[in-house]
User: Fold this.
Amino acid sequence: MNFTWAQQRILILSPHPDDEILGCGGLIHKAKSAGAEVFVQFLTVGNTTDQSSSVFSSPTERNDEIKRVADYQRWDGWHMAFPGDEYHLRLDQIPRLELTNMVEQESPLAIARLRPTMLIAPHRSSYNQDHQAVAEAAHTATRPSNTRLRHHPDLVLAYEEAADQWRADSVPMPNLLVELAEDDLDSKLEAMRQYATQIHEHPHTRSEQTLRSLAVLRGMQAGVPLAEAYHIMRCLA
Assistant:
């Protein structure tokens, strides 16, 4: 596949701070290194206590982490759409129209305003209700219509996270593998370290060993050392 990263303007939809790194951290570094623009639309953040640890994190801490990660990976912009406990882990209670309008038109990083060439969203098979809600909103926001009336990203992808292997239904194998260099993976791992309230020791799904192991597995499936995997929702060539 002949693909020029330098010509891409990439919009990543991240339900919570760290999802963009878990799913796309290597791609972000690869794309930025080639000259692409990368923007991250976060949907929500609130007070959290992970059920697998005693770590408590506040929205202030999470926002500070975002700023560190954004500076480290040299993002071109980011925005938080629905901050607060009334939204965190409750995005499924927001009407899909409201979520879709935020993604499509209302956010400073909305598709209509940013006009990205590539949009990357969570996969709808995630067990997490916020991820499901964002995936459905992205699906609606990128529906086909007249390209003279609405902007259509040429490439629409769904990213995977290790935790998403816990699912009720089988999902087809990812059909796009993005080769990563070692420094791409190093950037992904360091970005997760910057999310200090979210990274865990192995065998947690957000451990460094898990992230590296998944990259090695996806690389093997393409005959290369390392890769990230995606599902193609639309590809206009």
User: Anything to note?
Assistant: The radius of gyration is 17 Å. The chain has a mean pLDDT of 94. The chain is about 35% helix and 20% strand.
